[in-house]
Amino acid sequence: EVQLVQSGAEVKKPGESLKISCKGSGYSFTTYWIGWVRQMPGRGLEWMGVIYPGDSDTRYSPSFQGQVTISADKSITTAHLQWGSLKASDTAMYYCARRHTTSGAFDIWGQGTMVTVSS
Amino acid sequence: SYELTQPPSVSVSPGQTARITCSGDTLPKQYAYWYQQKPGQAPVLVIYQDNERPSGIPERFSGSTSGTTVTLTISGVQAEDEADYYCQSADSSGTRVFGGGTRLTVL
Q: What is the C-alpha separation between B55 and A112, in angstroms, rounded?
């Protein structure tokens, strides 16, 4: 079964760092882009960026460039999203999703990781 | 920044046809995708490349395009179709973007 399994919910304080993960299985991890999507409470979906695990080519939405870092470790078929210094406004659900090679669709989604940043 | 515009809400009675639109300048050149999101769940792809339906998605879901507007049509709406629907495409540089989302209410 093709699936993406994300790490569990996190509660952090402003200024702390964080790295969340998304493990792919059931398919060739290195040949599909993995994207990250933010959903703030009660709000819509926002595309953050994508990474190609095969060569770590990474593209960011201008809105998130410099705010987060997307990486991948193909040896453990896992993509990561990390923050160096969290803000309260980073409180959101974060989804990873696989982008299908030919259709370009985000066809497989992780279950989401809830990040809460509060003092 | 580039935007895709959707109506905030659409309401229909069971068995009727729901149409959800999405407008954007690059839609004549870039494919559109539609995702369904139910409360507390991850999004699910329901239409890709403007009008293609993934396996497992009911035939009542269809997509169409006309100029700068794409439309998700749900024929014979069922109660289980009540959800938020998001269109997604790309701007002229290839940066992906989502529309603001449309809440479909089944009356």
A: 23
